[in-house]
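Request from the bench team (R.T.):
"We need a structural guess for the complex before ordering more ERO. Sequence and SMILES attached. Just send the tokens back."

Command: build protein-ERO structure.
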Amino acid sequence: VDISTSISGTTLPNVFFNASGVWCQHEDELQAMVESHSGALITKSATLAPRQGNPSPRYLPLPLGSISSMGLPNEGYEYYLRYACSFNYSRTKPLFISLSGLSLGDSVKMVEAFVAADLPCMLEINFSCPNVPGKPQLGYDFEAMDAALATLAPLIKKPFGIKLPPFFDIAHFDLVAAVCQKYSNLAFLTCVNSIGNGLAIDFETETALIKPKDGYGGLSGAMILNTALANVNAFYRRLPDKQIIGVGGVASGKEAFLHILAGASAVQIGTQLMEEGPAVFERLNKELAEIMAAKGYNTIEDFRGRLKTL
Ligand SMILES: C=Cc1c(C(=O)O)[nH]c(=O)[nH]c1=O
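Reply to R.T.: structure attached below.
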């Protein structure tokens, strides 16, 4: 599959792939991602044991994005470890593995298994699942996040990344960046996960739209674009030695361009992939290439992080 887009004689890298959780829980979905025009693929966040997740309805598109409270449904980490062991790494499309332990002990067990397998896939440790009833997300407990990284980074040894929740306070950008800076093999940050615990209500029936947690769920899509751009840029500015993967509100080449301008080196697609399917990647590559041609940029590096301020 041609995973790069050619434009004005240069060959562009393909910066797009799925956000963990979308089109990636089962092997057939992952195969569709392999065959799509994405530049990479990532698996659904895995826990030690398989999980059914929350009761449905648990995902719904909204006028400005989506609300979801899936509850970490996944096949268990050994399913994704088997998938990673059998993956054809000779392809030029990288495989990322998302892990979301319900405890640090669980994360250690999963990380140790992947490290022992010594595979070319890249780990994205999820610090930000907002939908497991009774579990506060690690990303908002900075001491716990630091302790988790102090345990996991040395175990992983190789470059890895973390999936972060959105932050809304400059002091939090500073604190989280200071924690991340301590771990040299923490190579990338994926910003942002959904904005946790929003509430969508049906006006006619006066009822919450999704079933889990009295209707509280993660907000994604267009409504979180500007929060996502801020988080991408905040960590891009604070962590020059690390890469930022941007996710949140990308529905066309335009939002992808903005994420890259803010500093993103790659762009994940969640809600728009959920709604449009893997065909979205061919459209996004084409639209980004057209935008770059119109603006006179030949490579991503011609504009990545070049956000101007007034
Ligand atoms: C991995 C669990 C996550 C879920 C979930 O499975 O409910 N939803 C999100 O918006 N983000 C997550 O990180």
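Two things stood out. Residues 280-295 form the longest helix (16 residues). The chain has one domain: 5-54+71-207+222-302.
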